[in-house]
């Protein structure tokens, strides 16, 4: 919105020309989202406490200390993330850009699914919300719609092709299959972040790190000069997603202020499904789907641990891990929560650097 207003006043006020630059608006979007989170956070938490009876239901088969330490903590804190993210994006992004709308609406759509899931868990006072099939069907439908939208925005052979990091000349043409691949990326990313969200601050920091990495990627891919220099496949217009991702970083940092151990609020499925879907949609738009698997490697490992656990238990009746996802395995081994969280953050930072390295290694 401010971009449009700045264009109207650019001739009268030289300062208004700053709004032309994605870098300036990205920084402003990050700070705006952070400020909104700080402003609304206490009010949102008080409201969640007042409407929730006893806070988030705790799994009885999980680590025993959770029944004591986390009992009564309100959930659905993802509404704070989505509110600050949406307001900041609408203020600072170019609203004529289709990529911004595609990713933002996908994020809000997944957030709505998570909200309904959290609401049902609270109203029923158990850990069962929306049926797994219903949740997956809604995610697939929204993901497919967003993937088709992105293909139409990208156009040309690149729109339906899969790029491979490091190998600059490799472009896998998927044709009509690409929207299905894009859908899988979004749904997979959404559920991977959801599985990782099990300890205070565990999911939000890796999400912030991944968002920051993809903010840089979107800016480079959307800028023809930088894309040609780094031998990346340019995607005109996708640089505007840097503003959205900067707002995501700001809203994530604001939420972390209240989610830091001991958490005053949990993001719930409202936040985790939305944030994971946002990262997946951005990866599809920037043509860096495989790089997301590297940068978000922690989410991949957490998801893989669940798959391995379920598969092996059904076949043999024995467990590979003491408990899945992986962070619960280390809890069962006696690691303290801060130790697990901080070490997982470090792993995320390392993976982010590896993902960034793929931009230069060609």
Notable traits:
362 residues; two-stranded antiparallel sheet; 2 strands; 67% helix
How many distinct domains? Answer: 1
Are there runs of 5+ residues with pLDDT below 50, and where?
none
Got a strand count? 2
- Whole-number average pLDDT? 90
Distance between the termini: 38 Å
Describe this structure in words.
Helix 7 runs antiparallel to helix 11 (about 270-285) and helix 8 runs parallel beside helix 15. The protein starts with a helix and ends in a 5-residue tail after the last helix. It has a two-stranded antiparallel sheet with strand order 1-2. The chain has about 350 residues and is mostly helical. The chain has helices spanning about 1-10, 20-50, 65-70, 80-90, 100-125, 130-155, 180-195, 205-220, 225-230, 240-260, 270-285, 290-295, 295-315, 325-330, 335-355, and strands spanning about 160-165, 170-175. It has one domain. About 50% of the residues are buried.
Concise account of the structure shown:
The chain is mostly helical and 362 residues long.
List the helices and strands and how they pair.
Layout: H1 2-9, H2 22-51, H3 66-69, H4 78-92, H5 98-124, H6 132-154, E1 161-163, E2 171-173, H7 178-196, H8 204-222, H9 224-229, H10 241-259, H11 268-285, H12 289-295, H13 297-316, H14 326-332, H15 337-357
Antiparallel strand pairs: 1-2
